[in-house]
Amino acid sequence: MNIAVYLRNRGLKGDARIERLKRRLASGGCGLVDICSRSDLEGRDVGMLVSIGGDGTFLSAAALVGESGIPVLGMNLGRLGFLSENGPDQVADAILSGAYSVEDRTLLSAKPSFMTGNPSVDGWPFALNEVTVHRIGAAMLGVDVDIDGAPLPTYWADGLIVATSSGSTAYSLSVGGPIVLPEARVLIISPISPHNLNVRPLIVPDTAGISIRLRSRDSSVMFTLDNRMVEADASLGLEVSMAQFSLKRVRLNGSNFINALTSKLFWGEDIRNGREK
Q: Which PANTHER family does the entry link to (predicted)?
């Protein structure tokens, strides 16, 4: 199998762990190619892309593969790693032995009505974790949201997140959103620093169509797709829905989301239970 190796942090090039991985894969008969952009994948017969770094690198890798259907496997050299949870030796063993499966992860499609700045970025207009709108200036945003045509009360906040279940442990979690198992077919709508005391994150089916309109005294806002940002006119109208294709994520045998929660977020850790680290 031909494998593309993606390393966003070029300062890690030559890292002993990465070189060991490449040697093992090559000795097992895998063809290897280093990539750093979407054009590097064009015209190549690639069976899998190995993303080396952390979850941010994995998100960039997801943008690179786009609609190609190339499965992405995350190798973790970062801190958390919910998407890139695997160590170098685990990755090599699994690929060479076939001890993995490929799962579908929901992608978001975001269709803005008007943009300032250049939206020509990798993976446009799709996101794996979340789509957000966020204020740039001092003025609070009024965010009007319709779910399949039904209006919600206006959010007055710094911004709004629409996240997938994959993104529930990312930005959405930091603003008080729920943790959702990746296989759950839902979307999460969460305000960022709301000024309404009576608003809460909302879970909707991933089949829902979400329309967003903004009210702001500022002329522009920030619009993001995962870790990609563009500046948008404050009159932005945004339609968010589930994309018509999914990301193919490689999941190693024995991988467990609940175990990842306890080991990476220390869920349930309590020194009174004798579980102090």
A: NAD KINASE (PTHR20275:SF0)
Residue type, 149: G
CB-neighbour burial class of residue 277 (10 A; exposed 0-12, middle 13-18, buried 19+): exposed
Q: Tell whether residue 6 is among the known ligand binding residues.
A: no
> Is there a catalytic annotation at residue 233?
no
DSSP state of 107: -
Q: What is the pLDDT of residue 149?
A: 96
Q: Average pLDDT, whole number, for the chain? A: 90
**For residue 169, which amino acid is it?**
T
Q: In Å, how far are 73, 86, 203 from 92, measured between CA atoms?
A: 11, 10, 37
Instruction: Find the helix or strand (DSSP H, E) in which 4 lies.
Output: strand 2-7
Residue with tokens 């306890």: 262
- Phi then psi for 167, rounded to 5 degrees? -85, 5
130 is known to lie in a ligand binding site: yes
Asked if pLDDT for residue 177 goes beyond 90, the answer is yes
Contact between 139 and 218 (Cβ < 8 Å): yes
Judge whether 261 is annotated as a binding position: no
Q: Give the separation between CA 126 and CA 269, rounded to whole angstroms.
A: 36
Digit-coded pLDDT (tens) for 97-150: 999 999 999 999 998 886 655 556 667 889 999 999 999 988 899 999 999 999
Contact 65, 247 (CB under 8 A): yes
Calpha distance 13→7 (Å, rounded)? 8
Q: What is the pLDDT of residues 86-95, one digit of tens each?
A: 888 889 999 9
Q: Please check if 172 is assigned to a binding site.
A: yes
Catalytic pick among 15, 34, 55, 206 = 55
